[in-house]
Amino acid sequence: MKSIDIKRMVLAALFVAIGFLLPFLTGQIQQIGNMLSPMHIPVLLCGFVCGPFWGLLVGAVTPLLRSLTLGMPPLMPVAAAMAFEMAAYGLAAGLLYRALPRKTISVYIALVAAMLIGRVVWGVAMYALTGGAFSMQAFLAGAFINAWPGIILHILLIPAIVIALERAKLIPLKG
């Protein structure tokens, strides 16, 4: 393995750990966690920092690991659907960030697009995992209406971190 691959692997493991721990900030109160989506932050950051492969992997593993070890979120259908959603977040953030020009606005475009893609994937996964019992109203409520505080938090926090990492030359320009 190249040294950069080992670095990305270590960073990805740290992002999993952060994703495992951040929900404790909401006091394990499910309603607050659903609104702020703290587990999404390290997955999106991983896509930006480590690339699409590691973003996808961290996104898929984090909710399942947390569910299997702590029981939160519940494995079926919540953590399973979140695994698909967050894998899509990490993959899309990494791909779009690398495809778009290195401009501040591109970070926002990649983030918002990744968030939209991930939420659609979550809706499809919930629909499939519930045998079609997941309605459009439940999708809109879960993905947007009840999640607006987290959406705003992510739009404020994640680009600021990514831009700071860019300026410090801690995000590779290629790969």
Could you provide a short overview of the structure?
The protein is about 80% helix and about 0% strand.
Describe the structure.
The chain contains 8 helices and no strands. The chain is mostly helical. It has a single domain (3-167), classed as Arp2/3 complex 21 kDa subunit ARPC3 (Orthogonal Bundle), CATH 1.10.1760. The radius of gyration is 15 Å and the shape is globular.
What sequence of helices (H) and strands (E) makes up the elements? HHHHHHHH
Oligomer description: single chain
Q: What class would the helix/strand composition place it in?
A: mainly alpha
CATH architectural type: Orthogonal Bundle
Total tally of structural domains: 1
Fraction of helical residues: over 70%
**How many strand elements?**
0
Please indicate the percent range of residues in DSSP E strands (runs of 2 or more): under 5%
Unreliable residue stretches: none
Tertiary shape: globular
* CA distance, first residue to last residue: 14 Å
Kindly state the mean pLDDT as a whole number? 93
Q: What features would you highlight for this structure?
A:
175 residues, mainly alpha, Arp2/3 complex 21 kDa subunit ARPC3, 0% strand
Write the SSE topology.
Layout: H1 3-21, H2 30-36, H3 40-50, H4 52-70, H5 75-99, H6 104-129, H7 136-145, H8 148-167
